[in-house]
Amino acid sequence: MIEATLKILKADLFVVLNGCIGELVGDDTGAVVEEFQKQGVPVNAETGGLRAMILSVMK
Q1: pLDDT of 55 above 60
Q2: pLDDT tens for each residue of 20-53
Q3: Per-position DSSP letters for 1-59, written without gaps between them
Q4: Are 29 and 16 in contact, with CB atoms under 8 Å apart?
């Protein structure tokens, strides 16, 4: 999906967001995004519900 998006959209910033379901099943979005980061895009933002909630409480 990232590869297809890069073919049809031109932008200065691409962000890949993950969600609660991905976090629960263990999807490793960071690993998927890493190969594209070597090319200069995109940025990975880990936004799974539990992690985001825990980080906001810790601040």
Answers
A1: no
A2: 777 677 777 778 888 888 888 767 666 666 555 5
A3: -HHHHHHH---S--EEE--HHHHHHT--HHHHHHHHHTTT--EEE---HHHHHHHHHH-
A4: yes
Separation between Cα atoms, residue 42 and residue 5, nearest integer Å: 11
Angle 8-29-3 (CA atoms, 0-180°, nearest 5)? 20
**For residue 8, what pLDDT is reported?**
93
Instruction: Provide DSSP, 40-56.
Output: T--EEE---HHHHHHHH
Look-up of token digits 């940025």: 43
Cα–Cα distance, 52 to 8 (Å, whole number): 31
